Amino acid sequence: MSVQQEPAATGTAALRRELVPTELGPCTVRVQRGTGGRRTASGTADVYLHGAAGSWTTFRALLPAASAHDRVLIDLPGWGESTTGARLEQFSIEAMARAVTEVLNSLGYRRWNLVGHSMGGFVALHIAAAQPERTASVATISATTFGVSGAARKPLRSLLRFPAFVGMLLAMRSMAALGPAGSALVRAIGTTRVMRPLMSPFFAEPATIPAGVLRGLGDDARPASFSAAARAAAHYDFGQWRGIRSPVLAIRGDRDVFTPASDLVRLASIVPHVQKVTIPRCGHFANLERPEQVQRLLDDLLSQ
Asked: Measured between alpha carbons, how far is 194 from 33 in angstroms, rounded to an integer?
């Protein structure tokens, strides 16, 4: 395991960069020290899991807020800086959850509060079910669960209900078939003016999103990894979530094209301790569009 200190934005505690081996390949991890003292004092971490079109950087807007616990931000295998050696052929929700647990074990944490966006919320819920005694809380931000799972199984039949997801899935599959050239093409598009209209369905107010954020999403796009995540979601057994014992905060934007309100209702029918929150004038990336409101919700959850 290699360790490297790197600078952070003004007003943000420094991040320590580490490389941790897992069953799905090496994971690049950032650790931000909490205000509660040494990591071993409590053994609890706040863990951030990004979506299938992102990396740890999608949580950057939440980092300036103080946290008593260490924050652990993981580039999941196949995304961000965790692409080299990623074993996508072995990808499943269960395997991704085990990889996250391997990272946390390697770093010495015994318990965790999980914060997951999109696919990361899916993975967080599985970790909570598989490790109930070690999961203190779960917060999902637009978790792509029941609706996206069904659309991934039958994309053409789901075109009318989930046009944004089906369109993105078909595009990513096409780009994945091109290999490295497809990934390079997606990143090149991310640097052009075309990126804003392409991403507009995912934001309630796309004109307010900085160009740099959109470029970052283009840089983080991994067609093969996105396709592997969709395959994994299509075959997941949601009955496993009946083992979740921790409180769950389920957040979505009222204009979310990936996470319908019915997903939160169905989640609450399976998991006994779910608080449902819909943020007005917000799309799929509440952590980018409404970071202050998301942080208040997270603070309230942890204060409980």
From this structure: 38
